[in-house]
Design brief:
Layout lengths: L2 E6 L4 H12 L6 E8 L2 E8 L2 H8 L8 E7 L14 E2 L5 E9 L2 H10 L9 H15 L3 H11 L2 E9 L6 E6 L4 E4 L4 E4 L2 H4 L5 E4 L5 E4 L4 E4 L11 E2 L15 H7 L1 H12 L12 H4 L1 H6 L2 E6 L2 H17 L2 E6 H4 L10 E7 L5 H12 L3 E6 L5 H5 L2 E4 L12 H20 L5 H22 L2 H11 L4 E6 L4 H15 L2 E6 L17 E5 L5 H13 L4 E6 L3 H6 L2 E5 L8 H18 L18
Parallel strand pairs: 15-16, 15-17, 17-18, 18-19, 20-21, 20-22, 22-23, 23-24
Antiparallel strand pairs: 1-4, 1-10, 2-3, 2-4, 5-6, 6-7, 7-8, 8-12, 9-10, 9-11, 11-14, 12-13
Helix pairs in contact: 3-4, 4-5, 8-15, 8-16, 11-15, 11-18, 15-16, 16-21, 17-21, 18-21
Length: 612
């Protein structure tokens, strides 16, 4: 979503702001802008389109400032144009602010401000905040009173960074359900919506919490609660380094992140599988209690997009290995279903960022019903991490490509280990099977590396089919969710229509789509549903469909029926989803590359969806 950067210090202001905006651009954006305090006056430059358009406006200017803010906008209220771009100024020109999120009651506020003779240049909810803040500053006794009065009138989820000519040496910040981080430096401080950007400047940061106001100056940071009390804040340290944010030898971050998957899997194995093959999740103490496991009646998994697909795979594992009923829902649907939570339910909230708006809303609703919540997140210290009863970190590291790859495989591995742990504790899995599965798990990083060695072959298949107008993905059982995820990957980075189906559903409608111009990508490893899948391939061939099959090595029968084959190493059938996803990621990547797409920043999409 929108990106926020702010800087208070003596570095070259334009260099800091623009470089940060370029790094924030992976989140998705359609315009950008900066506002700086120069000799007590605010100057604003903003432009729709790429950041290069903004740079053209400011490259030849001499800008000297120690206080500034910058923004990348992803359009919500109002089209993408120069006027709607951030930062916005108040009517008297003394306030400038940037905003990430949505103000749900902005129309009502706008009507009230119009009655007070305020006029508006843009269509945004952000300009409403600027004028509302101006009005409250004129009416309130002091700055803090005006700030909290403004906050009390705003409905929605948002984070704000504000410049005020009456206090020219500071940035005022606030957040509610939308991320904002304060970077701590030596005689300089930063604000940012994304920790990926902060690590270029400092590894120390403060996580601004809900409904807190921060006053950021070059020499100090002060944080206040709603009672206007000054708070002590714990300074955290980032364990990532800035080199992980560089593409290195790869053309796109997505390809780099696909190739990082073996390392991610090794990291998860080393973190969670301890001596004597004990699976231990250090921040999941409540579910380590035997009584809790004994009484556990139902898992409710919720997530969005790729995380939802990971949850679908997790449902198969949890039900098979723990014999516990498992329901799964898309977060944006679950939050509006009046769900009948029951005692001894446990909710699993899956989110890469730990800030996903719908997933967070569902978690809070479940906690309001006194349901235990487990967050499966990549970002430590994120809102979902902090508000869950226990968390499991996916340890995928920074993921910059909008299309998630390594965090998906990380979520799969964690869900498999969680299923094994609970299944063993409930004595559903016998000890010999438990140890066998863990030995197979330990081989998965090497098997993924073997698949990556087939990259050139997959690239050739992509070149052969990249001009097709549509694709169908099919899978059965535990491999059906990867059909959905493979189709999603292709859609989001290539803009080709692709649909994933449960293979057994072909006769119920999708067979009407089969023709020589619509390739079918079949996930068909040798598992318990293998023979059922053979029948599906025969149905497709009878209708002259083109088949690209993902098959277990040495499967000659399917190889003869297929137009193209991608070989998979042998593993336990329950672990196949950790392998079948990798060729689908590569195939989607190379089709998008051949089509000339911006793989890391696909149109209309954002990395983290922090607003509804």
């Amino acid at each position: 979503m929108c990106g926020i950067i702010g800087y208070a210090g003596k570095r070259d202001m334009v260099s800091v702001l623009v470089s940060a905006l370029e790094r924030l651009s992976y989140r998705g954006y359609d315009s950008s802008g900066i506002a700086v305090m120069e000799q007590g006056e605010i100057n604003v430059w903003k432009k729709s389109g790429k950041i290069t358009e903004l740079k053209k406006k400011i490259d030849n200017l001499s800008i000297v400032s120690e206080i500034g803010i910058g923004h990348t906008r992803w359009a919500t209220h109002g089209i993408a144009n120069d006027i709607n771009a951030h930062p916005h100024k108040s009517q008297n020109g003394k306030i400038s602010l940037i905003h990430n999120g949505i103000i749900e009651n902005f129309l009502e506020l706008k009507k009230e401000l119009t009655k007070e003779n305020y006029f508006f240049k843009s269509e945004t909810d952000t300009e409403v905040i600027a004028n509302l803040y101006q009005e409250n500053l004129q009416q309130a006794t002091d700055k803090m009173a005006a700030t909290f009065q403004t906050i009390s009138l705003l409905e929605g989820s948002y984070s704000l960074a504000i410049l005020n000519e009456d206090n020219p040496d500071e940035i005022v910040c606030f957040r509610k359900e939308s991320p904002l981080i304060i970077g701590i430096g030596e005689e300089e401080n930063f604000i940012c919506s994304d920790i990926n950007v902060l690590i270029y400047y400092t590894k120390e940061y403060i996580e601004l919490e809900e409904n807190q106001v921060a006053i950021v100056k070059p020499q100090e940071v002060k944080i206040y609660n709603q009672q206007r009390e000054l708070l002590e804040k714990k300074i955290r340290k980032v364990d990532w380094d800035s080199t992980s944010s560089e593409k290195g030898k790869y053309d796109f971050f997505m390809l780099k992140e696909i190739h990082e998957q073996p390392l991610v899997l090794k990291r998860i194995i080393s973190r969670y599988i301890k001596d004597e093959n004990q699976i231990a999740f250090e921040k999941l103490n409540f579910i380590n209690e035997q009584e809790v496991i004994k009484n556990l009646k139902r898992f409710i998994i919720q997530g969005c997009g790729t995380s939802w697909h990971a949850g679908l795979v997790g449902k198969y594992w949890l039900e098979r290995f723990t014999h516990i009923l498992c329901e799964i829902d898309i977060s944006s649907e679950l939050r509006y279903r009046n769900y009948p939570y029951q005692r001894n339910d446990v909710i699993l909230a899956l989110s890469q960022s730990g800030e996903t708006a719908d997933t967070l809303a569902c978690l809070r609703e479940a906690k309001g019903a006194f349901i235990k919540c487990i967050g499966i997140v990549n970002v430590q210290g994120s809102v979902i991490d902090r508000e869950s009863d226990g968390s499991i970190y996916s340890y995928a590291g920074q993921e910059i490509g909008v299309a998630s790859t390594k965090n998906y495989i990380a979520q799969l591995m964690i869900l498999f280990l969680l299923s094994l742990k609970i299944g063993k504790a409930k004595k559903i899995i016998r000890d010999e099977n438990y140890h066998h599965y863990l030995e197979e798990v330990k081989k998965i990083p090497l098997l993924v590396e073997k698949i990556l060695l087939e990259e050139d072959k997959i690239k050739k298949i992509a070149k052969k089919y990249f001009e097709k107008k549509g694709f169908i993905f099919i899978g059965r059982g535990i491999n059906y969710p990867n059909a959905l995820e493979g189709a999603l990957k292709l859609k989001e980075i290539s803009y080709i229509h692709a649909t994933g189906y449960a293979a057994g559903e072909l006769k119920h409608g999708p067979l009407a789509l089969i023709d020589p111009e619509t390739p079918v990508i079949a996930i068909i490893p040798q598992d318990e549903l293998y023979k059922k899948n053979l029948n599906n391939l025969l149905e497709i061939k009878a209708r002259k469909g083109k088949i690209i099959s993902l098959i277990t090595a040495k499967d000659e029968e399917v190889s003869k029926m297929s137009d193209e084959v991608i070989h998979l190493p042998e593993t336990s059938e329950y672990l196949n989803p950790l392998l079948t996803i990798v060729p689908l990621q590569l195939l989607s990547y190379y089709i998008a590359v051949y089509l000339g797409r911006d793989v890391d920043q696909p149109k209309n999409l954002a990395k983290s969806v922090t607003v509804e």
